[in-house]
Write a structure and sequence with these properties.
By secondary structure, the protein is an alpha+beta fold. The protein has eleven helices and twelve strands. This is non-specific serine/threonine protein kinase.
Amino acid sequence: IARVGKKQTRYNLKNQNQPAFPNQQQQQAPNLNSAPFTPFFVKPHNPLQIKKNAITDDYKVTSQVLGMGINGKVLEIFQKGSGDKYALKMLQDCAKARREVELHWRASPCSHIVRIMDVYENLYQGKKCLLIVMECMDGGELFSHIQDRGNQAFTEREASDIMKSIGEAIQYLHAIDIAHRDIKPENLLYTSKRPDALLKLTDFGFAKEITTLNSLATPCYTPYYVAPEVLGPEKYDKSCDMWSLGVIMYILLCGYPPFYSNHGLAISPGMKRRIRNGQYEFPNPEWSDVSEEAKQLIRHLLKTEPTQRMSITEFMNHPWINQSMEVPQTPLHTSRVLQEEQDVWEEVKEEMTSALATMRVDYEQIKIKTIKDSTNPLLMKRRMKANKALTETPGL
């Protein structure tokens, strides 16, 4: 990676006449400073209309549990008339719940985000609740989908295609100033068990609208003179999503997560330290045949300093993502490792949930210091000068 000036970043291949991947046709090195990855646009979406009639007027609600979210069960329901199957999520009505539903609704036009069909405000057991009707994701979680392949090879090119799908969801969110902040394996679901099923992102319980100091996210400021806390909300919340992309990509390519000493066996007390120090490796045999481009991309996603992490535009413009047809079809160890370590997979997911929670708290605790507490060198010098003048003033 080469720095251009103080802000811009571009990727230099060792020799621009050499292919980016083994067996790749010769082509010009990508320019990550060009316009954002195309084709991409934010689709217009109608304002959210919350219905007040009983949900049972329009849907048959069953007791079949499709899954468990952070706020309770997700039930199977059927639309009356068409008989189409959907998923029902229930939230107790409050400002936080309405914000979650509103942000998810805004993101629904993206083809890689689970779509909200209807939202109802109904009473349930005497309490006002929001009932969210969503498309039904029958294909299960991302890594379960890969586990279920059995002996069928899972290749690096397939991993690239999956990461591109997740990247498109994040690109859409970041373009409309939403940080998801909870991107983890159980929130990535397939529409069906079919080979052509779409992968989609769900659960906006921790999503956040980025509104503070948006203008500072553009390249017009002078980085040396902007404190991290001024860049704070947007930079840190979006970088949390990029870290998650790095962890998921790492698991896709080998079957176990970074920051662990053994395959999937988490050492909880040390996990936070390993994340903060960026302590991870690419051990053999799982990584011996993985391309250097993939490893390079992971390194830029798992930067310990949030402001140094790749942006979603840089991610989508990386050759491993936008030239996926050139990514080698190397068979990976992923499905075998996932099957062997099934018994510790729940623990792995819990550790990622814990890490994301820590990040959200850390970023939200960034505060601008008061003048009294500031250690600004110029201010310290002025204080010393003022104190000296005060002590030397006659009659005091």
